[in-house]
Amino acid sequence: MANEGIERCRKSFPFWEKLTNEERELLERNVSVVKYSKGENIHSGGTSCKGIMIIKSGSLRTYLLSEGGREVTLYRLYNGDVCVLSASCVLDYITFDVFVDAEEDSEVVIIGASAFQAVMNSNIYVECYAYKMIAESFSNVMWAVQQILFMSFDRRLANFLYEEMKKTGSDTVSLTHEQVAKYMGSAREVVTRMLKYFVNEGIVELSRGGIKIIDMHKLKRLL
Amino acid sequence: MANEGIERCRKSFPFWEKLTNEERELLERNVSVVKYSKGENIHSGGTSCKGIMIIKSGSLRTYLLSEGGREVTLYRLYNGDVCVLSASCVLDYITFDVFVDAEEDSEVVIIGASAFQAVMNSNIYVECYAYKMIAESFSNVMWAVQQILFMSFDRRLANFLYEEMKKTGSDTVSLTHEQVAKYMGSAREVVTRMLKYFVNEGIVELSRGGIKIIDMHKLKRLL
């Protein structure tokens, strides 16, 4: 398992070839491959600091959590993506907290935070890589923020359903209204009301199993 | 003027001492000191690319702009702060657009984008610095985003000030931050930070005597 993880690091991290033997050995000793079950919390803001992660399989969801328990999804990570906000404790310029959950059963390669920090301090290429990944996260987050702040809710919901369809390859989105609301940072009532509107427009059908898109053309017109 | 700008760069940029003579000369040839009038636009998303800036005096406001013309303030920059999102065109990992306006008459030291890019490509310390400043912006933005999305405390504080005003019939709330915090069941630091935010938004003025509401219209918009 660890060997597999090291192999993955070698392929994913462009800084790997810039490491000294010592640095490489330190990182390799702190590589692990971890399985998470669907729904499991992986990283909780300030209270945990897993380290830098590569997603091997499944998918992770990053989100903000309000004091009142409201969640706002920021972005998702899939096979091959790198998560660096889960090492935010060792990145001086990151002063906010995000949460990361497994959205499906997932497998993740992790380099522990303190080993990563040590190598980041000794090797500028590693530090530079980490902050570039932060900039990539920043761009992902800003996309979501603009969606939330500026888009009308019908467009946002249409986008959400369309993205879910593309992800799963099914014309049925198997989520409850409650779950859709949670992922979109909205309230269940708001989602239900808009879905009823979509039903009336002949865009979707609602069933116990979820939300079935019956007119792709109409859905796409909303995007 | 240019010499003054170069002196400022030398003091503000920790990478300055890591530059080769050639790199330093290239940057120095592309330093300028520019004045902006209150309200003037400095940077407009994808259509302009000023370069990296140091604020010498005055203040700048960074914001998002929707297609419909709605603005959302992200953060402000003051004397000594560095603005790197105004060089986002030369930062591969930044894919979103922000806008920057002068909020007062301001003076800014600018290193032109293409010279900065050339040196960033040849010198890892410069590249690393730019992405660290991006991470700092990210943290600033996330503070604002959480305020906006979770909208709890600013609304509560606005409500509190409004109720106090009605009660006393005065536009000044004669309470210390400590007292406000106590009445609201919050912490003094939280109240102070939010009041500073209100000051920046032009809603209140702070003095020894208390908190003076200077823009009732803006306050009411928060209720």
Which stretches of chain A of 5+ consecutive residues score pLDDT under 50?
none
Strand count, sense and closure of the main sheet of chain A? 4 strands, antiparallel
The rounded Rg of chain A comes to 20 Å
> What best-fitting shape of chain A do the alpha-carbon axes yield?
elongated
Q: DSSP helix count of chain A?
A: 8
Report the span from N to C terminus of chain A: 43 Å
Query: How much helicity do the residues of chain A have?
Result: 40-55%
Order of helices and strands of chain A: HHEEEEEEEEHHHEHHEEH
Largest interface: A-B, 33 and 33 residues
Strand content of chain A: 15-25%
How does this model look, in words?
Two copies of one chain form a homodimer. The first copy, chain A, is of the alpha+beta class and 223 residues long. Chain A has eight helices and eleven strands. Chain A has helices at residues 2-12, 21-29, 113-122, 124-150, 153-168, 177-184, 188-200, 216-222; strands at 31-36, 41-44, 51-57, 59-65, 71-78, 82-83, 99-102, 106-112, 172-173, 204-207, 210-213. Chain A has a four-stranded antiparallel sheet. In chain A, strands 2-7-4-5 form a four-stranded antiparallel sheet. Chain A has a three-stranded antiparallel sheet with strand order 9-11-10. In chain A, strand 4 (59-65) and strand 5 (71-78) form a beta hairpin. In chain A, helix 3 (113-122) packs across helix 4 and helix 6 (177-184) packs across helix 7 (188-200). Chains A and B meet through helix 4 of A and helix 4 of B.
